[in-house]
């Protein structure tokens, strides 16, 4: 009977590369990183655990990325120049989110 059950992982974070997965984990302060979050790694874990499906959660922490980027650079004192820099960073974050979402859609079935 148990072998007839489908096991579905309903909350899976994945990354386009091991570098991104490990980098994200390091950014949260983790030092005990044992997984990289790639599709290949997930597939192996699913096969070994008899998991038939996974719900992939694509989350790009754009607010935190924006704040970190703004804090890491010197901003112009002129309000108009500062606003232009902020818009540029916002656009960059939106493009990252779109790219990540398109990647996730491309690897999902």
Structural topology:
Layout: E1 7-13, H1 18-27, H2 39-49, E2 51-57, H3 62-71, H4 79-107
Parallel strand pairs: 1-2
Helix pairs in contact: 3-4
- Total count of helical runs of at least 4 residues: 4
- Number of distinct beta strands: 2
Distance between the termini: 27 Å
User: Looking at the structure, what is the overall shape?
Assistant: elongated
The SSE string, one letter per element, is EHHEHH
Spatial strand order of the main sheet? 1-2
Backbone structural class:
alpha+beta
Low-confidence stretches: none
What is the rounded Rg? 18 Å
Q: How helical, in percent, are the residues?
A: 55-70%
Roughly what is the average pLDDT, rounded to an integer? 91
Biggest sheet architecture: 2 strands, parallel
Strand content: 5-15%
The total domain count is 2
Walk me through this protein's architecture.
With 109 residues, this protein is α+β, with helices and mostly antiparallel strands. The chain has two domains: 1-57, no CATH class; 59-109. The chain has helices at 18-27, 39-49, 62-71, 79-107; strands spanning 7-13, 51-57. The chain has a two-stranded parallel sheet. It is elongated and about 65 Å long. The mean pLDDT is 91.
Features:
single chain; 109 residues; alpha+beta; 2 strands; 55% helix
Short description:
By secondary structure, the chain is an alpha+beta fold. It has helices spanning 18-27, 39-49, 62-71, 79-107; strands at 7-13, 51-57. The chain folds into two domains: 1-57, no CATH class; 59-109.
